[in-house]
């Protein structure tokens, strides 16, 4: 079946173009929120105390070497604390972890209050009940606009296939219905 060429005009959608190369940030958040993603806890031990944050901009990068990435806002107060660490724990959060994600995303208070966590001897911190744990070593950092792409090399992992992951979509946390 042949398709006619047309300008960007989705049925029922709204098309907004950049003005002077810029978009309204609230609009961009809404647009990016149309893509569902998982939610991770990105954590490590600092002087024996857990420190971490939630990140939904996580993706696999390479199988050989085994690499993943997380995007971190340049305004993050947590990333400068985590960046010097030799090991970081990345937990892919499960459907019931919405309170954990909110706690780790908060700007104030004890982010780990009420969070069931564990740490490795190397200082990687993981959230219990997650679908996946990745112990990572820093590999590369790339400046990218108002964020930094942090590439991490996986040095150990634990998979929990019976735990359904949490999804972040439309600026809300969702669980996955299991069959």
Tell me what the structure shows.
This protein is mostly beta strands and 179 residues long. The chain has a single domain, classed as Pnp Oxidase, Chain A. Helix content is 11%, strand content 40%. The protein has three helices and twelve strands, in the order αβββββαβαββββββ. It has helices spanning 25-32, 79-82, 98-105, and strands at 37-38, 40-46, 49-55, 58-62, 67-73, 88-92, 117-119, 125-127, 132-144, 147-159, 167-169, 172-174. The strands form three sheets. Strands 3-2-6-9-10-5-4 form a seven-stranded antiparallel sheet. A three-stranded antiparallel sheet has the order 1-11-12, with no helix packed on it. The model has no long low-confidence stretch (mean pLDDT 86).
Principal-axis shape equals globular
Alpha-carbon Rg, integer: 18 Å
Give the SSE string.
HEEEEEHEHEEEEEE
The percentage of residues in β strands lies in 35-45%
Biggest sheet layout: 7 strands, antiparallel
Multimer state: single chain
> Within the largest sheet, what's the order of strands?
3-2-6-9-10-5-4
Query: CATH superfamily membership, which one?
Result: Electron Transport, Fmn-binding Protein, Chain A
Protein name: Flavin reductase family protein
Family: Belongs to the non-flavoprotein flavin reductase family.
Keywords: Oxidoreductase
Domain Flavin reductase like: 32-175
């Amino acid at each position: 079946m042949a398709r006619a060429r047309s300008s960007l005009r989705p049925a029922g959608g709204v098309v907004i173009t950049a003005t002077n190369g810029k978009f309204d940030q609230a609009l961009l958040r809404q647009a990016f929120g149309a893509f569902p993603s998982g939610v991770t806890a990105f954590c490590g031990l600092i002087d024996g105390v857990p420190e971490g944050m939630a990140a939904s901009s996580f993706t696999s990068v390479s199988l050989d070497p085994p690499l993943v990435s997380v995007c971190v806002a340049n305004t993050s107060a947590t990333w400068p604390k985590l960046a010097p660490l030799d090991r970081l724990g990345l937990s892919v959060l499960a459907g019931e972890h919405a309170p954990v994600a909110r706690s780790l995303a908060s700007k104030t208070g004890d982010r780990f209050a009420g969070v069931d966590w564990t740490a490795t001897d190397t200082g990687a911190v993981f959230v219990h009940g997650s679908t996946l744990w990745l112990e990572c070593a820093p590999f590369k950092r790339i400046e990218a606009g108002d964020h930094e792409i942090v590439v991490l090399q996986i040095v150990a992992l634990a998979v929990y296939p019976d735990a359904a992951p949490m999804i972040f979509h439309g600026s809300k946390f969702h669980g996955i219905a299991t069959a």
